[in-house]
């Protein structure tokens, strides 16, 4: 029999209310011990909540969700206590002393929901993302995933794969007659190609999905003293980076998270690019370049409005050029100018960046939003491609369709994923 797990599911103490959640076979016993009796299922009930020795810990609301129609599929209870440290400590102490009860690990409630078939792995990932979401686009995307949009899609694909395999079986049965198989194999070929195209569309939308989830990476590059750190501070509206008039001040990479119009952006300040300087600075420059290689956008800053050097352009990353310290010189043509001494110019730049980010990441929330999902779907697509070759033996086609189905099975967690579960759920909060 599994343990009964419990955790403080609400946030930092003290708080107005604190929610302690439990799941498992001992829940009925715990509720009866603490509240005296089981309340009506799913109805908030006010009760004196007692410790094992009968002393009242708090007056709180209690909810009981009998399994299997609960979030985890097991009996679940929630105690809504006053969010004082001593209240919560006393209550958790009471629970910890009961036999068969232990504190939940990170994500363990959701893991049980998954293991009991209440949700699939993409929904679990969506719930994790929903709790981690910091921007509107992240929230929308996570809610769609948590609501089962990807699961439904994957289930539809899987049903169609099974149908196609059934057609092929029929094809094999007809193999001694010459007229029927042609029609069937044409139908099967079209079915496979359609599936593959739909999956490819989701994969390509998923590039956006991963950027929405992880944040679009914008790396600030430019010569020493160009005003990079000053601009990063101005964009972030706080003093995150050290600013001095000494060239070579910034040595390590500095990351700032921005919310631009509901999209997460990771702004990375780097060491000014130059020859010479000490080993620390040189390492900083190396890191800046390396980071820029994988960036989504480079902001190239130069106080004279000069273009970036060839090796920066050669990275193949889109570059936005900015002339800094615009308060010091006249208007320059062609290059956008900004001064941290002129808030209007910084706000204009923020608007410009927001439009750029929105145009890249906007649109309906994609289903694919992390590498694991992309890998599974890519494998399914690869298997379908292998099934599409001309004049392949039916057995080979069928085997590739089976492999595509297995890849979808790993996506939704239906098969063979024990080793990835730990890494997925360990990033969750305790109590989720
Ligand atoms: N107090 C509280 N608020 C919460 C949660 C919770 O567990 N407790 N949630 C937790 O994540 C979210 C809501 N999600 C939930 C999802 C499923 C079930 C549940 O019991 N499902 C049953 C019955 C559904 C029904 O009555 O229609 C089921 O799926 O069979 C409960 C909450 C957000 N807010
Ligand atoms: N007048 C004026 N001075 C600025 C502006 N932006 C930055 N500065 C000054 O330029 C100097 C260098 O600024 P930083 O932001 O440290 O430049 P950086 O590019 O990060 O420098 P490194 O770390 O050396 O690469 C500081 O003295 C800033 O106060 C601006 O818009 N106008």
Automatic annotation (TrEMBL):
It holds the Pfam family MnmE_helical. Belongs to the TRAFAC class TrmE-Era-EngA-EngB-Septin-like GTPase superfamily. TrmE GTPase family. It is found in: Cytoplasm. (6S)-5-formyl-5,6,7,8-tetrahydrofolate binds at residues 21, 78, 118, 432. Keywords: Cytoplasm, GTP-binding, Hydrolase, Magnesium, Metal-binding, Nucleotide-binding, Potassium, tRNA processing. K(+) binds at residues 225, 244, 246, 249. The lineage of its organism: Bacteria, Pseudomonadati, Pseudomonadota, Alphaproteobacteria, Hyphomicrobiales. One of its GO terms (biological process) is tRNA methylation. It comes from the Bacteria. This is tRNA modification GTPase MnmE. Binds 1 potassium ion per subunit. Exhibits a very high intrinsic GTPase hydrolysis rate. Involved in the addition of a carboxymethylaminomethyl (cmnm) group at the wobble position (U34) of certain tRNAs, forming tRNA-cmnm(5)s(2)U34. One of its GO terms (molecular function) is GTP binding. Its cofactor is K(+).
């Amino acid at each position: 029999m599994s343990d009964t797990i419990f955790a403080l599911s609400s946030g930092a103490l003290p708080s107005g209310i604190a929610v302690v959640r439990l799941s498992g076979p001992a829940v009925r016993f715990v509720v009866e011990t603490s509240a005296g009796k089981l309340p009506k299922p799913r109805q908030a009930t006010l009760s004196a909540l007692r410790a094992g020795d009968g002393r009242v810990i708090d007056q709180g609301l209690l909810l009981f969700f009998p399994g299997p129609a609960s979030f985890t599929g097991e009996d679940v209870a929630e105690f809504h206590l006053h969010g004082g440290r001593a209240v919560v400590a006393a209550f958790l102490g009471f629970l910890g002393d009961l036999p068969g009860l232990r504190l939940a690990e990170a994500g363990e409630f959701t893991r049980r929901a998954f293991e009991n078939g209440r949700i699939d792995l993409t929904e679990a990932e969506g719930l994790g993302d929903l709790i981690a979401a910091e921007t509107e686009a992240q929230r929308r995307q996570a809610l769609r995933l948590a609501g089962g949009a990807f699961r439904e899609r994957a289930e539809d694909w899987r049903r169609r794969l099974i149908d196609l395999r059934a057609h092929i079986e029929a094809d094999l049965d007809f193999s001694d007659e010459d007229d029927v198989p042609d029609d069937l194999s044409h139908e099967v070929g079209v079915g496979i190609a359609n599936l593959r195209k739909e999956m490819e569309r989701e994969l390509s939308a998923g590039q956006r999905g991963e950027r929405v989830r992880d944040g679009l990476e914008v790396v600030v590059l430019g010569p020493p003293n160009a005003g990079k750190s000053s601009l990063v501070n101005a964009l972030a509206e706080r003093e995150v980076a050290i600013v001095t008039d000494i060239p070579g001040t910034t040595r390590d990479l500095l990351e700032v998270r921005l919310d631009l119009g509901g999209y997460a952006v990771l702004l990375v300040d780097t060491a000014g690019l130059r020859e010479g300087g000490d080993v620390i600075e040189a390492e900083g420059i190396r890191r800046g370049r390396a980071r820029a290689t994988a960036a989504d956008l480079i902001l190239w800053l130069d106080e004279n409005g000069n273009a970036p050097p060839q090796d920066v352009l050669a990275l193949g990353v889109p570059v936005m050029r900015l002339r800094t310290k615009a308060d010091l010189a006249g208007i320059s043509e062609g290059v956008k100018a900004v001064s941290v001494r002129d808030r209007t110019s910084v706000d204009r730049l923020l608007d410009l960046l927001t439009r750029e980010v929105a145009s890249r990441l906007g649109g309906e929330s994609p289903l694919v939003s992390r590498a694991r999902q992309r890998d599974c779907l890519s494998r399914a697509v690869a298997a379908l491609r292998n099934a599409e070759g001309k004049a392949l033996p039916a057995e080979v086609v069928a085997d590739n369709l089976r492999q595509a189905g297995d890849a979808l099975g790993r996506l939704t967690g239906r098969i063979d994923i024990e080793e990835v579960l730990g890494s997925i759920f360990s990033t969750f909060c305790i109590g989720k």
